Prior knowledge:
Strand content: 15-25%
Oligomer: single chain
Shape: globular
CATH class of the largest domain: Alpha Beta
Distance between the termini: 45 Å
Largest sheet: 5 strands, mixed
CATH architecture of the largest domain: 2-Layer Sandwich
Radius of gyration: 27 Å
Mean pLDDT: 87
Number of helices: 26
CATH topology of the largest domain: D-amino Acid Aminotransferase, Chain A, domain 1
Low-confidence stretches: none
CATH superfamily of the largest domain: DNA ligase/mRNA capping enzyme
Structural class: alpha+beta
Strand order of the largest sheet: 2-11-10-3-9
Amino acid sequence: MAQTDIDALTEAEAAAELEHLARVIGEANAAYHSRDEPEISDAEYDALKRRNAAIEARFPDLKREDSPSDQVGATVADGFSKVPHAVRMLSLSNAFDDEDIREFDTSVRKYLGLGVDAPLAYTAEPKIDGLSLSLRYEDGRLVQAATRGDGEVGENVTANAYTIAGIPAILSGAPAVLEVRGEVYMSHADFAALNTRQSEAGGKTFANPRNAAAGSLRQLDPAITAARPLRFFAYAWGELSAPLADTQQAAIGRLAALGFQTNPLTALCEGPVAMLAHYAQIEAQRATLGYDIDGVVYKVDDLALQQRLGFRSTTPRWAIAHKFPAELAWTRLEAIDIQVGRTGALSPVARLQPVTVGGVVVSNATLHNEDYIAGCDANGIPIRDGKDIRVGDWVQVYRAGDVIPKVADVDLSRRPDDSEAYVFPTTCPECGSTALREEGDAVRRCTGGMICPAQAVEKLKHFVSRKAFDIDGLGAKQVEMFYDDPDLPIREPADIFTLQSRDAANLNRLKNRHGWGEQSAGNLFQAIDDKRRIGFGRLLFALGIRHVGEAAANLIARTYVDWPQFEAAIGGAEGFDGPDWDGLIGIDGVGEVMARSLVSAFAQEAERASIDRLVAHLEVQPAERPRTEDSPVAGKTVVFTGTLEKMTRAEAKARAEALGAKVSGSVSARTDLVVAGPGAGSKAKKAADLGIETLDEDGWLDLIGAL
């Protein structure tokens, strides 16, 4: 992925792509984790998530509530009991080139306040391409085994784990409580032999060893698992009653001493140069290892530093996966389709002659926008040496670092003589409305609004999505059905909550339709009633307002606490000036782009009327604040300014938020406390002018009991 590609995106283009990525990655998670039938390769999946993370880093205000960055795995499939993890099983952030690793080291040092010459060791180990498993031992006995699931809840596969030869049932000398984590995998030789046996018996064969391992572990009949040649590498731990060691390397050695197989290629590296050298050594051995790996994992070796670095929402700050390079392939571009998203963005998609890229059949690719098709970026600067993309072209498909994948290049020598330049549509293919491209925006948008069926349906699908209203029995498929229903149409969210009364007035016809019955109709109505009571943050996210994702919606909800206060503040922010506007953009994490989108949505008469009709059917619950009964700063708005000498700014913000405070980036009349270090300037002066309490760093640490 070229950084210039990310830098060239406008906010509108980035928002449209993030919307698309959330849907594609969500579908990939379900296929990979829940059904063991991946539709894309691991490398392509990593590429999608990397693209998503890169865009979010470039446009933090656009991060969605359903961002793949905040998701780990997928929900537990039917057939296994659920097992909550005492310590979350998180995924790793990814790196794809040497510069990413140097940036990782720099970010770790910056967070810890370490200089570039300070010693800092990392472990480096092969990243096994298998299925994550957590093994819980109590008093030396294996009592539970669970898959990762969504990171918080996994599948209980204890009976199956007992059948894997590399997993000890009893340990000697282990802590009273020990959760060992690692990867279930299958060797190349065992995989080939299994497929031969399956084929001879007329059974299912597997596409690759990872699929075979996942499918074997997740069998409801343990006898089937026992017949499969599964292996297990241990590389981490969860809940512990006593520490294993002081360092990552020593802890892995302790696991090996307890009887677990650990990877012999794990090495201790002093800094990025050594890390990259070991990466090269592992990559050179990749083809001869006898099992699949897809990269190298680096971890800060000192466990005390790991604890200090902590976690982001779904990934640790102290580890990263350095993935191996992706692959390229050439194929014919058969058509260019235009998809219309929830915000009206017209997104071009390449329909390809199916081609296998690294073991995965690819038939679709992103074309980003009309500039990309024309062979230039948003500023008119040529890309691909200015070569445009046309139907009938032979195109190079690039799998890593870009969405689904990306069409990276064109072979002009194979271009048909009668080819014609692609003309991007100026009308919406769904509703015929004019599609405008505003100045400075790389994306052309349908102006039809809610009269455009594509936009209306996508907004409704978002409204009922898992992290929004999540209504059982009313998913994407049902939304499409009801949208076109002549008797019981759902054209806006409020229609969902009048569905039962309209059905009753329509002689209860829903229960008599194909695919429905009295029980299923009753269950749907009950599920809808259950969601009349909804949290403030969920409601705000469900509205699908541009740039307002899940994290932002919850942040805004915690700031204003309840819906009436929020409505009053948004009304007072119209015109984008005054104290209510300053208060909105003063929320750390709410930028001007997001704030303008939010205020504009509520200022539009038709949209506001639709929101009001919806809220009339709901009981909106106030936002919950952190459980910080003894915190001296719970509920207060804190601003940090100047240089902090005893902790980094990131640590200070994380500590304050953990204590229930809201950290703002600007001082206003709503600010309760300013922490000013050396070099504090205008913010400290404004605090003094407003009479706001100001502390130095020692005073802050004393206040929160950290001295």
